[in-house]
Design goal:
21% strand, binds ligand DP6
Length: 409
Amino acid sequence: MNNISVTYECAPNIALIKYWGKSNEDLIIPLNGSISITLDTNVLCSRTTVVLIKSNSAKIYVTLNNVTQIIDNTDLTKNAGDLINKKRLFTMLDKVRQNCGLENPFEFEIRICSSNNFPTACGMASSASGFACLAKCLAKVFDYKGDVSELARLGSGSACRSCFGGFVKWNTGANSSESLSTVLFPAEHWPEMNIIALILEDEKKAVSSTHGMKDTVLTSKLLPQRVKLVEEERLSMMEQFIREKNFSQFAKLVMQDSNSFHAVCMDTYPPLFYLNDKSKEIIHFINEFNKIDCRVKVAYSFDAGPNCFLFVLDQDLNELMFLLKNVYFLNEDLCDKIGTNETKIFLEKLNFDRIDEQRKLLLINLAIKLSNQNKSTIIKYLIHSKIGSGPVLNNNNSLLDLDGIPKFV
Ligand code: DP6
């Protein structure tokens, strides 16, 4: 049999109703369900190639950031210096081998290579897109008969939502085979939606999501109330607002859920501070923008870090960008702050002349009110994305040759 090679691209997703806390650490079963939007793979994506080589050695090679390591299944609890969480990788491999179409799935050497089209320094988390890619590739090369979102979830919880495009729900589930994600609505359902990431800090977070949520589960008395609220009200409300395309209700709930998630982080002992002063500054900015017409036009959301994700419809995008420019980038070219080529094209297409003079005056007055301190250095990168359609099979852009040797090392 010839070597088998598969390459997938997957985008990160942003949770609208957030996952925080597990009922089963090993199987990554969440305490509550969550709903997310998948970003566009053309803007941000992880790319992963997996090559299976028939061999008795059954070794596993992992190449990340041009570094290759041989990973074995000894000492699964120790991860120091490893490129990938070994325990999670082997849980995924066990799962895929138990339920696959290959006659003898242990007779292969596995070569894995992954990279992101966005620099780590741009502050975007890549574990969701990375593990979704790995799951998609493993499922394909092993002819896996199970659910790919279950496989991705065993790598990292939020990764199960990056296995699909559009609006995705991860159902809590009572056990591993029930804790799966599904598409609620495809990307085309709400084409007017824009997602803007404002990267405020590009350093790695102090406490990882995995560790942070473990501490929250152990110590927060607020968490059970949040879990109840999410399960009993928020998931169905969010689904309804998306179905009806009721933006103001959608946006309010996105912000409330982000606030509630950071409240349980604060309620953790010792407390988890993911938001910083710059994040709070952006929250203030958005609230002021929403006050202008007494209408919620933009939502903010923050994950386990200070960086901000904004949701805004096409109709309000131009004014939002005009205000952002006048508060944060007054003396700079917006294009110097972009994270990707697609964002550059998006910014070039913006036309502030379309805003009538009276509105401009109103927005400039607000900008003056908001700009009395030096804010020009707050935003490091700006990334714009529409809703993405999900994973892309891209064997033409393989990162490994057919012998499993990295192409660009
Ligand atoms: C705040 O999926 O990174 O982004 O399952 O331990 O790998 P593990 O954690 P991870 O947590 C993501 C938490 C979050 C909220 C969310 O994406 O729903």
